[in-house]
Amino acid sequence: MLYLLLTLFGCLTGITAVLFGFGGGFVVVPLLYRLLSASHGADDPVGQSAMHIAVATSTCVMIVNALIATDKHRRAGNLIRHYLWPLGGFIGVGAVMGAIAAVWVSGEIIRYAFIAYLGVTIIDCLLRRGFLTRNEGVIPRRLGITEISGGGVGIGVIATFLGVGGSVMTVPLLRRCGLSMSQATSMANPLSVPVAMAGTLTYMALAGVSETDLGPWFIGYVDLLAFAVLTVGSLIGIRLATPWIRRIPDRVHAWVYIGLLIVVLLAISIK
After folding, report:
1. Structural domains of the chain, count
2. Domain hosting residue 102, numbered range
3. Does residue 218 contact residue 224 with C-beta atoms inside 8 Å?
4. How confident is the model over 140-156, as a mean pLDDT?
């Protein structure tokens, strides 16, 4: 039953990666946190590290999802190079910093930070002009130097700290540059790759430094069994979602994106 549930949720991560740029964190983090907390006691090392494991495994799953979804969107012609680089490089630098910070902070602090950031993002998307409605005919603007450097590092730090891939920040940012939801969510996938890779490697390395022994199926904080099952499910989800690329109306796409954020906020908030 456990593996069936992981496969189903893995399928959901594949769908959200392709259509909304969510590399897996918004689905994997709440799911694994719940499952690990319920199946291991408070005195068990896995139970004590449930949030760290959920975040670390999430970043690992994101590597696969983001790379495959990026290739799908490249073939569909949705990617625009100057929005990806050098922003992606600065995100990678911030990702290492965020992973280091997360390892030395308690799981509850990470959980509350996750809740707070989701709440602020939802309110911002609803109230600030430019996300729900896109003015047709407006030429998209390029990102400024401050948005690329300071914004990129900030996105990397927060995304890896929370294990969410960065789409919650990159999609609203690119949306306000004048891009369509299809373009903004497409770009979120390649921009999640540096977060996923830097985060995964850092979590693996730092868990060894902190002498955390979680068992034979773990590399650092990464749960290899959960990663394998979630990845199989995600490949199915990506295949199901690919035909829908660029077929969802822009305003509907924006509202569903916000709706997914609200669902995840409720899931991680209920203890």
Report:
1. 1
2. 2-269
3. yes
4. 80
The reply to whether the predicted model has a pTM over 0.85 is no
pLDDT (tens digit, 9 = 90+) per residue, 1-10?
A: 667 777 888 8
- Neighbouring-strand partners of residue 218: 223
3-state secondary structure the chain: CHHHHHHHHHHHHHHHHHHHCCCCHHHHHHHHHHHHHHHCCCCCHHHHCHHHHHHHHHHHHHHHHHHHHHHHHHHHCCCCHHHCCCHHHHHHHHHHHHHHHHHCCCHHHHHHHHHHHHHHHHHHHHHCCCCCCCCCCCCCCCCCHHHHHHHHHHHHHHHHHHCCCCHHHHHHHHHHCCCCHHHHHHHHHHHHHHHHHHHHHHHHHHHHHCCCCCCCCEECCEEHHHHHHHHHHHHHHHHHHHHHCCCCCHHHHHHHHHHHHHHHHHHHHCC
